[in-house]
Amino acid sequence: xxxxxxxxxxxxxxxxxxxxxxxxxxxxxxxxxxxxxxxxxxxxxxxxxxxxxxxxxxxxxxxxxxxxxxxxxxxxxxxxxxxxxxxxxxxxxxxxxxxxxxxxxxxxxxxxxxxxxxxxxxxxxxxxxxxxxxxxxxxxxxxxxxxxxxxxxxxxxxxxxxxxxxxxxxxxxxxxxxxxxxxxxxxxxxxxxxxxxxxxxxxxxxxxxxxxxxxxxxxxxxxxxxxxxxxxxxxxxxxxxxxxxxxxx
Length: 249
Fold this sequence. Notes:
By secondary structure, the protein is α/β, with parallel strands linked by helices. It is built from nine helices and seven strands, in the order αβαβααααβαβαβαββ.
């Protein structure tokens, strides 16, 4: 599995199911509508890949990494594990490359990659750390360098790329869970997603959490799966489960 960023709602334990649904679609173009960490897009085998997210920090990071990978790697050669540096990097720069590097640093050095508070350990199991980030960048770059990168509202990105050859992967912010994301959706947005998917030309897969609003809006899913919530150190919490719903055409 190719992975670079840690990000809320990452689909590590769902990738095999997502890949199976995509492969059965027979489509050659995949559009990740709520791209996030890019983990799903990196691990799908498609001729054309489109990354989209409304979050400017994410879009800027992937754009700068695609265009200036060697400069990012060079900056990493001189970086330190430092709470003081973390607090300094919370402030924005006027330079896009510098902001991309600061975003990466704060992703590595914070709890759940959210960049809100300093939290770092070299013992994290299977996580990206300052020790292995160079390897992760080089591995993921082989995919990212071919991406088309967009920063559009989900309505616009689907309208722009909808065709019979398109496969849309939608992993919107979980409904009614607002503390994980910087860019949450309103109920009206989920209603718009449903309207768009009802008339879409291409294929799609929507992953979303289960609650009454979601079930009332989208109906019974084609697939429902229980997943264990894993902590930042890779250990599972037996008392913490989540249900992911799969809607696809």
